Structures are given as structure tokens and as C-alpha cells.
Amino acid sequence: MDRKWTKKEAQELSKKLFHKPVLAWDVMDRTQLKTAMALAGSYMEFLDRAKTEREAVVELLSLAGEKGFSLAGKGEAGSGICLPLGNKCLALFRPGKRSPLEGINVVASHLDSPRLDCKQNPLYECVDLAFLKTHYYGGIRKHQWLARPLAIHGRIVKKDGTALDLILGEDPDDPVFTILDLLPHLSRKVQGGKKLSDAFEGEKLNVLLGSLPLGTDEVKDRFKLSMLNLLHDRYGLVEGDFLTGELEVVPAGRARDVGLDRSLIGAYGHDDRVCVFAAASALFEAKKPQYGALALFFDKEEIGSEGKTSAKSRFLESVVEEVLETSEVEPTGRNVRKCLLASRALSGDVNCALDPDYQEVHEKQNAARLGYGVCVTKFTGSGGKYGANDASAEYLSQIRSLFDRDKVVWQTGELGKVDAGGGGTIAKFLAAMGLEIVDCGTPVLSMHSPFEIVSKADVYMTRQAYASFFKGGKPLDLL
Q: What is the pTM of this model?
């Protein structure tokens, strides 16, 4: 150094050179604050109506219909088209001014959340109580599902092909269900000293269904029979109908404001319905984008994106074929590939926020924080980035320019310390199809629990980020 710097000069230089994350509340004006709170209210209503992937698709189709979208081939394509798949997967597309061969802008998120699924033969009785057996779905902490009110959502398709949709435990007049927990007085030998994964067994996540018998004690399985009789009287079900059903056990109750200031939202399913809602909301606002705007909503992310309705499927290619036809472009294999290679995407998935009580599992310099806006995650995976998508510097620069241009408050983050954390998203599957993509979503506390926490400021900034992206500029031309 050629001279001694004064304190004031050094402070001015630090302002110029250092990067400091911005608390979203600090930069939001009164109008933005009012908009953020109204958006949070709409989001909470969405959460209450969309506790399963099926319900989310139904709700999204309803919202899209109100915005002028129509099913592919059944209306005017100019306002937007809907392409559902198997009631668990959905694409919403808004045509742009440019040809899709020049690329489209994609936000992809997932509809499923960790939960308990009823087994195919779930009903049984034990010590004069009736139960449902379950198999947990996705990465849950099993002890968090005990001794709490639970609801049952899902569909049963009867032998004659009739579909029955059930929601039990959500209406204030409904009964709720629960999984029993062991009192601390008796748990020392059974659970004490064991790892959580051993202390709480998956086979013991059995849902308490009832305790009223049918008939005298000479009747075999009369508690189970009583439950089946109630289900038959009300819904016409027999035990064999469970074989062809998909029943999901989820936390009962509404999304709630959290905190004296109501600045937070506590609910089941923020992962990943906060990004689903933000993407749909942003797409509905994108009236006449330069480039086609596509919101993809996949299933099965929480179990590795396996199956027909997942990001590993050929659904995106089919959607692009429909997009090309809508734009009067021949949907050849070459044109599909050309569109995908010219397109760019955001993987709309949440990241974990810095937990105040467990800061040791985070690398705080690179951890997302609640209230500091939408989180951009350059790479996912675990350890040495295994199973990762790793976005390029050029693409990150484009995203940075977009968000800064539109005054989106954003931050970067990763999922825990290098050798302690990690996780996957759907980004790598879209990247394999040729799209430039980076993870971009809302920070969450208590992720994968039955009551996750997000900041209303971050929900707002996530929607703003997706709106900025759909408005965007020219997608990368990689040909």
C-alpha cells in the first residue's frame, strides 16, 4: 500500500467493495409491504386447499382457468394453455412474442411433500383399538409425527372404476387422527440412548382410527369391523377398495400466521408449495412476455424423482411438442431439442435457512437467512457435489443482472456444511435435457417437519424473482 488510509476512507471503500446481504424488510416500501401481506394471505389459502399433489393440481387448474388458461387443444392458446398429467403433474404455458425455437423461460417446482402413505392393506386392530398402517414418504423425522392431530387425504378407486376423493380431519366438525407416543416414564429402555432412526420405527407409525366395537366380544375383529361399517355406510367402501387407493396422512389444520407481528407463516408443505404458488402467481402476471413462459409442477421429487409424473420422465419433451404446435412450429425431435437447448430455467425449490439454535451444522458465510429474500443455490448434491446441478458463472451473471434490474432482494446459500449436509433437487434432470438451470427458492426453517416456517418477505421476493425471470431477456443461445 502506498499510503495510510483513514478510517472514513476505509469505510467508504468497504461499502464499495464488500458484498452485504440485504434484509428484505429494510428495503420494502409501504406499498410493497401491503402487497407482500396480501400475497401471503392468498398463499395460505392455497396451502389449505392443496395439501396433496392431486389437490394442488386441481387448485392450480382452477386458478389458471380464472386467468384465461385453457386445456391444450380446447380453447384459445393465446391466453395460455394447461397440460396436466395423471392428476399429479402439470404444465402451464404462456406464449411469448418470439418463436419457441429461440428458447423459453421455465420455472420448475415440485408438488409433493414428505408425509405418511397408507399401506395397501392398512386396516387392523390391536388391544381393542383400530389402526391404519402407513409407509412414510420422503425424508421425515419420524418422531415429529407422533402425538399430533392428523388428517387423511386421498383418492380410492373402487372395483367398478368409481373414484372417491376423501378429506377427513380438516373441517372443524371432523374428527382428527393421531399416532400414539410413549410416555417418558416408560421410554428409557425402549427408546433412551438410541439413535433417533432406531428409537422411532417406521412400522410403528400407525394411525389411530377408533375404539368403538361392533357387536359382542364373540365377533372377530369387531373394532376393525366397526370402522369398515362406518366407511361403508358413508362412502360405500369395502376393505378391498383400499388395495386400489392412495391415501395420504398429513398434519391437520390450517396454515397460520406466526409471531406477534404476523411476519412468518407456519404450515405443512412449504417445501415445495411455496415455490409452486410463487411460480403460478408470477406466470399469471406475465401477460405478454418476450419469450414463452412455462411453469412446470412435478411429482415425486421427495423420493428421487422416480416415475411417470416426475422430472425424470419425458413429460417436459411432450410439453415442448405441444408448445411448438401451439406456435405453429413442426414438433420434430430436432425442433424439440433446439427449443430445449436455447431455453433457460429456474429450479424452484426451497433451501434451509440458518437455524439459530443449530448454527453449527451450517457454514454461516454461505447459509441462507430468513427474511433476506429468495435464495439462489449455485450447486446442490452432497459431499463433493455428487448428484448435483452446478450452474455456470455466465448463467448466474444473467440471473444476477435480472434480479438487480428489477430490485429483487436475493441471497445465495447452500444446504449445510460440506460434510454434514447436502441434498438434491430436480435441476439436474432438466440440465440433462440441455437447459441452463439454477436452483432458486424460498428459505425455510424446520424443513421437512409437519410445521415449516417461512418469512412473508421471502414469499414475496420469490414471486418477484420468478416474475422477473419470466419477463426476462434473451435466453442463452447455446447452439
A: 0.95
